[in-house]
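Today's session is about reading a structure prediction critically. Students often jump straight to the picture, but the first step is always the sequence itself: look for stretches that repeat, for charged clusters, for runs of hydrophobic residues. Only then move on to the predicted structure, which in these notes is written as discrete structure tokens rather than atom positions. Here is the chain we will use throughout the hour.
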Amino acid sequence: MKTDVDVVVVGGGPVGSTALALLGQAGLTAIAFEKDAEMWPTARAVHFDGETMRTLQGLGIASEFERVTIPMKDVAIINEDDEILVHASTDAIGGQAWHDHISFHQPDVEKLIRSRLEHIPGVELRSGENVTRVENVDGGVVVTTQSSDGTTDSTRARWAIAADGARSSVRSSLGIESDKFGEDEQWLVVDGQLVDSPGCDADMVQFGRYSRPALWLRLPGSRVRMEFMLMPDDDLDEIVTPEAVERISRGVLPVGNFFPDRQAIYTFRGRIAREWRRENIFLAGDAAHQAPPLFGQGLCAGIRDVQNLVWKLATVLRGDAGDDLLDTYESERKPHATFWVKTASEQAVMIQTTSPEVAAGRDAFMKAHPEASAAPAAPALGPGLHAGDRDERAGTLGPQPFLSDGVRLDDMVGPHFLVATTREIFDGLSPAARSALEGDGDVVTLTDPAKVGQILKGLGVSAVVLRPDHYILGAADEVAELESLLGLIPSLAHQQAK
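Below is the predicted structure for this chain, in token form.
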């Protein structure tokens, strides 16, 4: 099919904009359509992790993000009687070479991502154009749009990525249903400036108050967010007044010191779309999954989605793999996202209980087992393009060390496969394997101990292969094991098949 672009992205929020930037960086042509003419002026997401920063680092904008974000120093869980059940420090550089918990004001983040798009050839964000139809056709998709003046147009592409949010019109039009996790709850979300008032001591506080569960977050500058669970007898008009906000915050957001710029009632829900791919259309971000905000993984999960998908689209487009590679997007990402949705929903049940008896039991348990409240370790990907059937490290997120010269690993490797191994293992490879590695522009091979020593020592292996999305393809200790892993790299497998 003759196409106008390789990919159409539906939605220009942070997930859609990041997808557009990644597509352009990978050499694909793409257009993103965003129905709103202007960028959304208020915050929604406020947290991302070191893995997300690693993606932004790959786009060349991490240093700019550091200027508009703050690392989260500590978290706490407090009960009805204001007892501190848990207090933990989070102010450390993690295994991704960035802080593991970072707070931001979403408009600042979106502005930076959009500014990066202006410098990436082959991609375009069109605002004020509403996608009214996305249709699979033989060999691609046709996307119909309508501008604010009523003009309609169509764009033909090889694929479409629907990053159009929790109320995704694309998902609805495809008739894709979602599985529910936990109970839906209505919350009041309040963002604004807190001036000449201390707020809470910790950067993030979960208030396990059975009279009204709540959440506090300190954001860059004087910005803060609080979230309050709505109770059955709340007056929805009164609960958003300054006096009510001061009351339900127990004085944390006092009238005269807190200046809100957003007050909205949201329904916190856990959902996973049952299908993430319908032929040439892929769901990503909130269109594919929604989680209660207990671990701050909503935006992180959306960024993971497009990081996983884009390099696979590029691999298929250049002919190094067949279309079935794209099936691994859902098989890998869906179990990973489901883990976080399910875990956040279960945590919500514990923190959001309105039963004094249940809260008392929870408090006693958390005092005795504070480690149980820690965020769980991130899971591995589901089945897909990795050696997870024979290596438990495969499919897990790979490390990014600082190299001996202070450079972060990805700044040297770029968006490629990485083969990191000892010189002894590399020299033991067959001449054909060495030649293929040295001649493949999609693979970076490192054997210098100063560059690979930390990676190999940390994993306890002699060789490891990382994918472009930084997940481990597989690890090896013997030459034969590494040769087997090289056969999983699509570009090398394609060479061998010719």
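Discussion point for the tutorial: Residues 5-70+101-178+270-351 form a domain with the FAD/NAD(P)-binding domain fold (CATH 3.50.50.60).
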